[in-house]
Amino acid sequence: MSGCTPDTATSTLTTPAGTIPRIGDAAPDFTAVTTQGELNFTKWAGDRWVMLFSHPADFTPVCSTEIAEFAKRQADFEKRGVQLMGVSVDSIHSHLAWRENLQKLFDVRITFPLVADNNMAVAARYGMIHPGQSATATVRAVFVIDPKKVIRAIIYYPLNVGRNVEEIFRLIDALQTADRNAVACPVNWKLGDKVIVPPPKTEKDVEARHAMKDADKLDFYLVRKSL
Question: Which tens digits make up the pLDDT trace of 112-126?
Fold first, then answer.
């Protein structure tokens, strides 16, 4: 984009600014300056799962605890084949200084890229700016994106409440389990719990359910099984 400063994200998106992507939409692509240099999102993501998240501002208390925790749990994300990318409207210089400060405070290295979205190009197209909270800072958004670059889940948190990392893991585990086994995951589901068999679509499906063994058949439409 002509006239961009080195700190400015350059958008190649076709999604209208201000439109919030929905579950099932293609993840908007972008090219931006990050703490690991200029990156194109699609090329960087490759064929892996991604957790794209925003934070309101560098050098703020809640954000600092979140970023440090994401870094401490990065091996757990990687075990699930998930890579992390953070976004805020801070400059690249602020990101780099904050990264060094977090290492000093929490004894952890931030090895995932942080996008310097000075002109809010990425934030606008991912719906990370909520004027009711702030017109200039991103809310705490989480986008879980699958290897096909499809948005599979979206979570928004207000500026004053930090995210729950264990719930994010539970969500990713459920999405990946459902994909691998063509099942659904019930309330409070965790790895190892029984899953839901998809509802029947034909009479033959109903008959097949009656013949199932080693399954909890609460009703013809509600069947749980172990994997």
Answer: 999 999 999 999 889
